[in-house]
Write a structure and sequence with these properties.
Largest sheet: 10 strands, mixed
Radius of gyration: 17 Å
Number of strands: 10
Order of helices and strands: EEEHEEHEHEEEE
CATH class: Mainly Beta
CATH topology: Pdz3 Domain
CATH architecture: Roll
Shape: globular
CATH superfamily: PDZ domain
Structural class: alpha+beta
Number of helices: 3
Helix content: 10-25%
Length: about 190
């Protein structure tokens, strides 16, 4: 492999997160620290739209809704995520992929060959008991894989997805008062 070829082992994820009626928000925290460049995914709620769309704690956000956010502050990124009601698209990389791309001086963009598209299943329109309601990964070549089966192509009958009722979730749209002043964390 030549130095200017992207190693397909390191995935970039385009997480298309759609809010569910019975779940409060997207189910993740946006995290930033003063002096550390970038916006990161903090806690991701279990059984949330964010988790179903492939977000993981520690992911670095590259783009929000198709716009590179590398020069935006925390408040601007929060506003960009909230621009489209009920859904957002986050281009993210995990730490390993981020380090790889930085070491090769490769600018991460949504048109690289190793971008995987993952969309939250629309549980608002289904009962969650069919194969179409499971989260899917779509690669650039159009192949579709079930996330719940370790990326294997399957034809299984599906599974149900549980969500945390809104009444059981702690809601906070402000930075936590217990956090140091150089840390920003907003629940979305």
């Amino acid at each position: 492999m030549s130095d200017d070829t992207v190693n397909l082992r390191y995935n970039i994820r385009l997480c298309h997160i759609i809010k569910w009626i019975d779940f409060d928000g997207y189910g993740f925290n946006l995290h930033a620290e003063k002096g550390k460049p970038g916006q990161y995914i903090g806690k991701v709620d279990e059984n949330s739209p964010a988790e179903a769309a492939g977000l993981k704690e520690g992911d670095r956000i590259i783009e929000v809704n198709g716009v590179n956010i590398s020069n935006e502050n925390h408040k601007q990124v929060v506003q960009r995520i909230k621009t489209i009601p009920h859904e957002t698209k986050l281009l993210v990389v995990d730490v390993e992929a981020d380090n790889y791309f930085k070491s090769k001086n490769i600018v991460i963009k949504n048109d690289l060959p190793n971008v995987i598209y993952i969309k939250t299943p629309n549980l608002n329109l289904t009962n969650g008991n069919n194969a179409d309601s499971r989260p899917k990964m779509l690669t650039k070549n159009g192949s579709c894989f079930d996330i719940e089966n370790n990326g294997e192509k399957t034809s299984s009958k599906g599974s149900s997805t549980a969500t945390t009722p809104s009444s059981d979730r702690k809601i906070s749209n402000e930075s936590s008062p217990e956090l140091p002043l150089d840390l920003h964390e907003v629940r979305l």
